Amino acid sequence: MARQPRSLAGKVVVITGAARGIGRSTAELLIGERARVVIADLDGALAASAAAELGATPLELDVTDHVAFTAALDTVERDVGPLDVLINNAGVMPIGPFAESNDDAAYRAFAINVFSLMHGTREAISRMRPRGSGHIVNIASMAGVVPTPGAAVYASSKHAVVGFCESLWWELRGTGIELSYVLPTLVNTELAAGMERTRATRVVEPADVAAEVVAALKRPRLAVYVPRSMGTVTKVGNLIPRAVGNKIMTASGSDHVILDSLGSEGRTAYEKRVAESAPAADAERARR
Ligand SMILES: NC(=O)c1ccc[n+]([C@@H]2O[C@H](COP(=O)([O-])OP(=O)(O)OC[C@H]3O[C@@H](n4cnc5c(N)ncnc54)[C@H](O)[C@@H]3O)[C@@H](O)[C@H]2O)c1
Fold first, then answer.
1. Would the pTM count as exceeding 0.85?
2. Which of 89, 173, 177, 269 is most buried, judged by most C-beta within 10 A?
3. What is the pLDDT of residues 186-212, one digit of tens each?
4. Does residue 186's CB lie within 6 angstroms of at least one atom of ligand 1?
5. Which fold has domain 12-287?
6. Does ligand 1 lie within 6 Å of residue 192's CB atom?
7. Which of 154, 181, 225, 270 is flagged as catalytic?
8. Residue whose CB lies within 8 A of the most ligand 1 atoms, among 14, 15, 16, 22, for a mutation test
9. Catalytic annotation on 270?
10. What is the pLDDT of residues 95-133, one digit of tens each?
11. Which of 19, 69, 72 is nearest to 46 (CA)?
C-alpha cells in the first residue's frame, strides 16, 4: 500500500528569496497547508509586505552573508521553532554572450546560486541531524541538466547544484533528512523576463513549481522536474545522438531564446534590480 503523504501542518519552513516569484508562490501554498513559513529575502521591505499579505514571518536576509544566514536560522529556531524545512530558492540569472562577461558576474552568480545554497544546506543538516528529521529543498533548474546558450554561467551554477545534491543524497541516507532538488523549465517570473517560449520550451507559472515542491515535501523524492514531463524529455535527450539534439535546439529556436531577450523592457528592469542589489559577496570579493 502506498505510504500516506506527510502532513505539513505546523512545520517550520524557511524559504530564501521568497519575497517574489517562485519562493513567494511556494510560501503561499505552504501556508495553505498550515505550515509556519518564514519569508527570507534580500529585499526586506518586499519580504515584509509579502509576509503581511500571506500570514508568514518576514526576514531580511542576504544569503551571501553566511554569518547572517546562520544567525537568521538561530533566530527562527528561537522564535518560531526547530527548522523542519529549508528551501534554498534565492537565485540570480546573469545572461549574455560569455566572452563579453566578466569575473564579477560569475562570482556573484556562484556566491548566490551555489555557495550560499551549500552554506544553508550545511546549516540545515547540523540542525536536523540530531533530530533525525527534516527536508532540504534546493532550487536548481532545467539549465542544470541541459545546455543553455546565452546563460553559460547560470547553467554551470545550476549544474553545480544538481551535482551537489546527487552526491549529498548518498551522504544523507540513514540520517532521516530528506533532500530534493527542483528543475523547473522557464517560469513566468522577473528572472525570466523577456524570454519567449519556443517550440521546445514550455513556460510554467510560479504556482506550478510551488505545487511540485509541496508534492515533494509530502512524498519525498530527489529530482523534481517541473513540469514532470521534462524528466522524460531529459532522459530521451540523453539517449539521442548529439547531431539530432543540435538540430532540435536550432530548429526550435532554443539556441537563441535567451540572447533574444537582451534589451527587452522586462530584462532591462531585472538586470537593473540585480545590479543594484549589491549582495555582501560583492564587497567580500572586492576586499580580497
Ligand atoms: N524563473 C525561471 O525561469 C526559473 C527557472 C528555473 C529555476 N529558477 C530558479 O528559481 C529560483 C527563484 O527564481 P525566481 O524566478 O522566482 O526569481 P525572482 O527574481 O522572481 O525571485 C528571486 C528572489 O531572490 C531574492 N534574492 C536575490 N539575491 C538574494 C540574496 N543574496 N539573498 C536573499 N535573497 C536574494 C530576490 O530579491 C528575489 O526576491 C532561483 O534559484 C532561480 O534560479 C527560475
1. yes
2. 89
3. 999 999 998 987 666 789 999 999 999
4. yes
5. Rossmann fold (3.40.50)
6. yes
7. 154
8. 22
9. no
10. 999 999 999 999 999 999 999 999 999 999 999 999 999
11. 19
